[in-house]
Amino acid sequence: MSVNFSPFISKPDTVARIMLKVLIALLPGIAIYVWYFGPAILVSIFLASITALITEALMLKLRSRPITQYLKDNSALLTGWLLALSIPPLAPWWLVVAGTAFSISVAKHLYGGLGNNLFNPAMVGFAVLIVSFPVQMTHWLTPQGLDQINLDFMAQMEYMFFGVLPHNVTLDAITMATPLDTLKTHLHLDKHVKEILNMPIYGSLAGRGSEMVSLGFLIGGLYLLVNRIINWHIPIAYLCTLFITAGIFHLADPDHYVTPLFHWFSGAAIIGAFFILTDPVSSPTTVKGRIIFAMMAGVITYLIRVFGSFPDGTAFATLLMNICVPLIVLYTQPKVFGKKIKANKKGA
Amino acid sequence: MRTLYKFHGGIRPQSNKSQSTQNGIVRTTLPSHLVIPFQQHAGEAAKPIVQVGEYVLKGQLIGIPEGFISSAIHAPTSGIIAALEAQIIAHPSGLTDLCATLLPDGKDEWITHEKTEYLSNTPEQLRQKLRMAGVVGQGGATFPSDVKLKLGMHKVKTLILNGAECEPYITCDDMLMRERASEIVRGAEILCFILAAEEVIIAIEDNKPEAITAMRTAVSGSSKVFEVVEIPTIYPGGGVKQLIKVLTDLEVPSGKLPAEIGVQCFNVATAHSAWRAIAYGEPLLSRIVTVTGNVRRPQNFEALIGTPINELVAHAEELPGANGYIMGGPMMGMRLPSKSVPLVKASNCIIVSSEKLFPPALPALPCIRCTRCSEVCPVNLQPQDLYWFAKAKEFGKAQTFSLFDCIECGACSYVCPSHIPLVQYYRFAKSEIRVRTQEKHSADRARERHEFREYRIEREKQEKAEKLAAKEKAALAAKELEAKSTESVQHEAELHKE
């Protein structure tokens, strides 16, 4: 059947293509990840993808929605990938599977499926995992090239699936806390920033290896900006706020507060700015709203990182700000053409 | 150089205009018959003043305007009125309306019509002439021009001639400007004279260099108040309010008319017909129409109003694969319910559609709130929210979020990656709200009537009761009086007895 009502033409853009471009934009970061930490992350991503697609299909069937048509939108894949990237690559296989299944089934479909979820599904999955399995969630791989034992791919797989390590290798020898976490722990031990950053796990900007991964995600993020998949408002507002907040603390007391650049290239700041906070479904729809949302997320990220008990703050900042989205949107309505007052001023 | 301003959003679809501008305007031959609807304009339909079987001349009045907002209808050629009946008209629903069927006699014989010098008329006389010549806006809305020229309380400072023609495929204004520039300018002089406007801006999108050159040459001989302005090609830059914003930075307030901020806007084709009507006494009998799309020779035709569209399309030769006609452009046009509906004053373009040109819409997916729609909305609405409200039938909220400011330009639907027919949702919500308002209105009236009836019954009851009480009282009083009088009589009698 042909279109019966105007407009009869449309831009050849699809949700599937948008999501695909976001997946493509993640590739440089993933490639650098593999370079520094070995191919275990690829297995995590693979597991997450399979779980995401199966859960999505099951939920669609339960909700009697057209399965093939919806599966092809690539949105479940994206959720799976983002979650896999926020979990330690050497974590047991069931961690990423459980997390992804929870993200897709509860955080996405129980809220009404694509387009209706209040929270970013990947971040809900992450929050559930870090609260339920804090130990498994802190065993991050040490970057290759440090004077430590590096597991080869088969050994990594053996540990992921069976929890078996080679002889004379302890878990502590191959894993570490994240650079942000290490920093926090050592600051509590009354060490100075300068001393701490001399540790071998730190590179020139932040954590060795992980800083480069962030750089990879930054490249992907710029690709999204150039291709107009995302708007500049959220990433720029988020990163600038994080920079300024960290900068104020750093200038006031450089011995105890690291540089803003360290914060940019640590943890999930970059991937959060370009890939997570920008999720259209769970972020504000107005320009002003996006800036407020991202700025507040930037401050919360910093506060959780520096004063909170979790190693990173991006995920919780995202979830906290997701709650505020409807309110932010209501109070940041733009002025309609030919009108003086905005919709919300009439008490909508 | 005039400073130009921007309106929010807008899109740049493929223009597809060059196909139909390769050749000049061609006058079509007389069709087998003409079907002339009596309602071809906004407002009240014209009242038929001919009988079946009557012989009419070209230009003869067959429908007179009724009411303030109305226009006249004429016989486009000489011949016999064969029928006066309801026929399918150019409306997407397949609605029928009263039409006159005219069988041409082939002589194309004119009524007597005379040339006039417009300056020898008063503005009011000119207005009346335009009304009786059936001149209406030919940009699509077909609003009677004389009404827009009536001087109200607002002084019109700027007269804008709209030659933007922002919709893809349509080239009728472009070709008219290329070929009849001086007549358009003279028409604009008349409109300017009636309005006593201070300046006349002729706005043309920069994708029509030939038209711009032709119009610039035409105004060079005219008075200084004329200015041809090249505006950027961006859809819907030809929308009245958007155009005014681009040219003057003024925003026509929501729910108001341009005249209220001292601007009046006419399509270039309207100015052209105004000139023909005043200078030559020729009513609006034909118009320029683009026939394009799935045809062998896409082109502009000057065709008589009432020409069956399939006969018009035959001049351009329909190609195999055609699956219907669209009247207007691909952004705001409508699919015609039948191929033989007549050409009307609003028909600026006929696109012969095919599956290849306009592929079937992909199935709609959920909205992901990507806001590509709000980024292109020329009214700065939040289409993703309006869609939500329309879908949930939260019409109150839809109105609060300015649903009625939507101009249905279709830019939101055009960019939607989920292929949601957004404009359809807004049309649905608008009509629902209108129906409900009407229902509420009649319910209110029914309630008022009911309440009044209750009140009346109650009042009558009360009055009856009061009357009864008064009667009883009177009766009682009478009785008392009687009793008293008998008493007194008795008393007297008694006294007498003593």
Tell me about this structure.
The complex is a heterodimer of chains A (348) and B (498). Helices cover 60% and strands 1% of the residues of chain A. Chain A has a two-stranded antiparallel ribbon with strand order 1-2. Chain A has helices at residues 15-37, 40-62, 67-71, 75-86, 93-109, 121-132, 153-162, 171-174, 179-188, 193-197, 210-226, 233-252, 260-264, 269-276, 287-307, 314-330, and strands spanning 140-141, 175-176. Chain A starts with 14 loop residues before the first helix and ends in an 18-residue tail after the last helix. With 348 residues, chain A is an all-alpha fold. Chain A folds into two domains: 12-171, no CATH class; 177-348, no CATH class. Chain B is α/β, with parallel strands linked by helices and 498 residues long. Chain B has helices at 123-132, 145-148, 172-179, 181-195, 209-220, 240-248, 268-279, 309-314, 372-376, 383-391, 395-400, 411-415, 422-497; strands at residues 26-27, 34-37, 47-48, 55-56, 61-64, 73-74, 79-88, 96-104, 158-163, 199-205, 226-231, 263-267, 286-293, 299-304, 322-327, 334-335, 349-354. The longest helix of chain B has 76 residues, at 422-497. The interface between A and B is large, with 41 and 66 residues.
